[in-house]
Specification:
The complex is a heterodimer of chains A (114) and B (109). Chain A has 114 residues and is mostly beta strands. Chain A has no helices and eleven strands. Helix content of chain B is 0%, strand content 57%. The chains are: A mainly beta (114), B mainly beta (109).
């Protein structure tokens, strides 16, 4: 019953450092997403993927890169972290079928950039 | 532009009924979602409406009016565990979700 798993759960970075967030899902979902959530704002889409080997930019892609080499994994990278990237990051996945389109979310990764 | 509006915060009493409103403006429309998010946790799916009308699921119901760009989430027989943020999201013509900032619901005994 793992669902969507994100690692790490918490991380503190200094400005300019790099890091990678890993998202893994065991539901064989085609679609995967990375969102950030900031106080007083809705979830904002960073990047998404509609299948293995594909990625696309969302609403706020600058400063982030992603890769989807395996269907079950979606990686989010920060090449040179900035304080503006302090946020809670959520990964989500969905099967992409034409029913409810329900998104399944990971528990979130809280990132602080000093 | 695309926009979702919902109240920032609401307060209600345990055992009562509360209605959380959401208005949306999107380029095309492919459905309206409600998610629940407890503090420090991930959002979890509550409901999906694509046709006008009321969808009932236990204590929770969701209503949609496409012509008015309006939805509401109705919570009955409120329990303390219903204290959470409720996120409204509309799916546009590209099947992308546009999210509201969420409504924080505070339940008082």
């Amino acid at each position: 019953n793992a669902g969507v798993t994100q690692t790490p759960k918490f991380r503190v970075l200094k400005t300019g450092q790099s890091m990678t967030l890993l998202c893994a899902q065991d539901m064989n979902h085609e679609y995967m997403y990375w969102y950030r959530q900031d106080p007083g704002m809705g979830l904002r889409l960073i990047h998404y993927s509609v299948g293995e080997g594909t990625t696309a930019k969302g609403e706020v892609p600058d400063g982030y890169n992603v890769s989807r080499l395996k269907k079950q994994n979606f990686l989010l990278g920060l090449e040179s972290a900035a304080p503006s990237q302090t946020s809670v990051y959520f990964c989500a996945s969905t099967s992409g079928t034409a029913d409810t389109g329900e998104l399944f979310f990971g528990e979130g990764s809280r990132l602080t950039v000093l | 532009g695309q926009n979702i509006d919902q109240p920032t915060e609401m307060t209600a009493t345990e055992g009562a009924i509360v209605q959380i409103n959401c208005t949306y403006q999107t380029s095309g429309f492919n459905g309206l979602f409600w998610y629940q998010q407890h503090a420090g946790e991930a959002p979890t799916f509550l409901s999906y409406n694509v046709l006008d009308g009321l969808e009932e699921k236990g204590r929770f119901s969701s209503f949609l009016s496409r012509s008015k760009g309006y939805s509401y989430l109705l919570l009955k027989e409120l329990q303390m565990k219903d204290s959470a943020s409720y996120l409204c999201a509309a799916m546009d013509s590209n099947y992308q979700l546009i999210w509201g900032a969420g409504t924080k619901l505070i339940i008082k005994p």
